[in-house]
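Quick one, tokens below:
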């Protein structure tokens, strides 16, 4: 009984949070789908650009409501540090470490109203997520095939699929202020993945440079900077359910604005070995800095 008394408030909080999230999602997605259908039926670019702005506004309203209930259920303030001059009408390339689905809620709440809405590169399978998968499609989120290394080695032409997907998505992003979001690790950090990779970083998986390079190749001249985001959960990485229950809910975020070297805004990442090496070295240094930053942010907890 003592355990039930301790866990019941968290359980009720988690259920309440999920109900609020589902109701909020269903309401705004219904609005989104109506406009998406109109956009699908109308071929004129001028009208579609205006509809894209309206679709983004609906998505931002969904994020704003999510942020409200996060504020109610997580009253402890997050530790946020932003070393950047942010513009809600700018174009940004955003890169972050990735540990949990909670990262997306954190990033959306952090940047709401500060920069344009985040557009993510998503795995192709996520289009089948009920309701929200269709919403991502309506908002022009790019869905990537993510072929295995073995498949790419056997059929190099498969690389062109993701290249064309990225190119089409970024061409749309260039028409309206957008923040293109990428998790360079390509997947959530797990200890067994870290060990399998023999990652040289203590708190990170090896970064995958391909998606970043593709985005810069298509619209690098339009991005005003790279926003380098580091997310740390000092009480341990929460699952989505733990986070909704306000368990392991402390969050530390650091944002650093980095210039994008001009030479990386053009070049053939897949075919130019020297360009690829230079790009990977640049991203590797960012990852080395991030790993040291995570260690420093976690140090007080480890000492304690």
């Amino acid at each position: 009984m003592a355990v039930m008394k301790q866990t019941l408030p968290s359980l009720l909080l988690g259920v309440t949070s999920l109900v609020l999230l589902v109701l909020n999602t269903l309401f705004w997605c219904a609005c989104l789908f109506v406009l998406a259908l109109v956009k699908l039926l109308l071929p004129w670019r001028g009208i579609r650009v205006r509809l894209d702005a309206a679709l983004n506004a609906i998505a931002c309203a969904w994020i704003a409501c999510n942020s409200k209930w996060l504020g109610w259920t997580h009253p402890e303030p997050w530790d946020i540090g932003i070393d950047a001059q942010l513009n809600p009408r700018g174009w940004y390339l955003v890169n972050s470490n990735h540990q949990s689905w909670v990262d997306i809620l954190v990033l959306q709440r952090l940047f709401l109203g500060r920069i344009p809405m985040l557009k993510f590169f998503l795995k192709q399978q996520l289009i089948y997520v009920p309701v929200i998968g269709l919403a991502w499609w309506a908002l022009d989120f790019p869905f990537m095939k993510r072929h295995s290394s073995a498949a790419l080695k056997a059929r190099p032409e498969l690389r062109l699929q993701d290249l064309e997907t990225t190119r089409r998505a970024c061409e749309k992003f260039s028409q309206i202020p957008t923040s293109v979001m990428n998790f360079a690790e390509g997947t959530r950090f797990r200890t067994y993945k870290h060990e399998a990779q023999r990652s040289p970083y203590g708190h990170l998986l090896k970064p995958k440079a391909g998606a970043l390079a593709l985005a810069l190749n298509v619209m690098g001249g339009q991005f005003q900077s790279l926003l380098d985001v580091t997310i740390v959960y000092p009480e341990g990485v929460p699952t989505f359910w733990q986070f909704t229950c306000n368990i392991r809910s402390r969050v530390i975020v650091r944002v650093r604005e980095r210039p994008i070297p001009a030479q990386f805004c053009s070049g053939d990442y897949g075919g130019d070995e020297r360009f690829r090496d230079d790009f990977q070295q640049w991203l590797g240094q960012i990852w080395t800095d991030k790993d040291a930053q995570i260690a420093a942010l976690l140090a007080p907890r480890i000492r304690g």
